[in-house]
Amino acid sequence: MPPRSLAREHQSASSIETLLACPLRFAFEKIAGIHHGLVASLPDGPLLSGKLGHRLVEELHRRGHLAGSRTSLEGHVLALFDELLPREAASLLGPGASFERIQLKEQLGAAATTLFDRLAEAKLVVADVEIATEVDWNGSKLYGRIDLLLRDGRGREVVLDLKWGATTYRKLLEAGQAIQLAVYAALRAQATGRKTLPPAGYFSLSRGHIYTTEPAAFALTHAASGPPLEDTWERLERTVIAIERLLARGTIPVTGLGESAPMAASLGLSDKAAERHLLLEPDAGCTYCACAALCGRRWQELA
């Protein structure tokens, strides 16, 4: 186990992904609490669309519209969009935003009805939305909040994560790097005592399509061409344990710099052993990192 100064009492899909991408960023942000300056801002673009889409689906479920008829759903979804707009996406009510607002209303209305159709075709019902789950894992608590927890005709759980985009999440499944989805499935498996992970997938709010490596669970004819989530989870666990052993010795690897050693080398893995670990691209943790000046990446870019 890592020393207390480098350990977290709670882990999440986000903190695990940061740890795997760059242990130094993990130490700075998750342990030392170094973040970007707190500047008040409103979400916009895909972030705003996804946030509003989540809330729309959540309220449709809480009001019973996802369990009713398609006609009933269609009769409520657009009115509910208008109801949520002032609270969840007020910027779309401003001058010059009418085209974006109308377009998003049409997109999310279509996404909600398509989701209804997909669940009906697969004989899946929504058991709960935004369900918080916490289990003991790797000496800490593993926590996650699952967008849609579904049940099939035999009462078995199925996990569905709502996303605005599509391409990014399809590529993650294909590469065996769908970390968030694997964590959510593992959470539910441990919470319910399952020996295997429940089926899981992404639903794209912008495309109205389910992406998964387990198409039978969603009555789909095509799957994302990637390894099963079981494989992703097993590789993830091995790599987290290996990185934490380094942290316990006081060694904190850094990625994304020109002279950074590959993570496999930092972990002392042979080429064959590396195949059994979840190794991300060297700069995977750099995009939204608040610590580029501390690790030297910002100065490197200026050189």
Written account of the structure:
By secondary structure, the chain is an alpha/beta fold. Among the domains are: 4-38 and 233-302, no CATH class; 45-121. Helices cover 46% and strands 14% of the residues. It contains twelve helices and six strands. It has helices spanning 13-21, 23-31, 45-62, 70-88, 98-121, 167-175, 179-192, 229-248, 263-266, 271-274, 292-295, 297-302, and strands spanning 10-11, 125-137, 140-151, 157-163, 200-204, 209-211. Strands 1, 2, 3, 4, 5 and 6 form a six-stranded mixed β-sheet that branches. Strand 2 (125-137) and strand 3 form a beta hairpin. The two termini are 38 Å apart. The mean pLDDT is 92.
The overall average pLDDT, rounded, is 92
- What kind of sheet is the major sheet? 6 strands, mixed
Distance between the termini: 38 Å
- Give the helix proportion (percent range): 40-55%
Which blocks of ≥5 consecutive residues have pLDDT under 50? none
Structural shape: globular
How many beta-strand segments? 6
Features of the shown structure:
303 residues; single chain; alpha/beta; 6 strands; six-stranded mixed beta sheet; 12 helices
List the helices and strands and how they pair.
Elements: E1 10-11, H1 13-21, H2 23-31, H3 45-62, H4 70-88, H5 98-121, E2 125-137, E3 140-151, E4 157-163, H6 167-175, H7 179-192, E5 200-204, E6 209-211, H8 229-248, H9 263-266, H10 271-274, H11 292-295, H12 297-302
Helix pairs in contact: 1-2, 1-7, 3-4, 4-5, 7-8
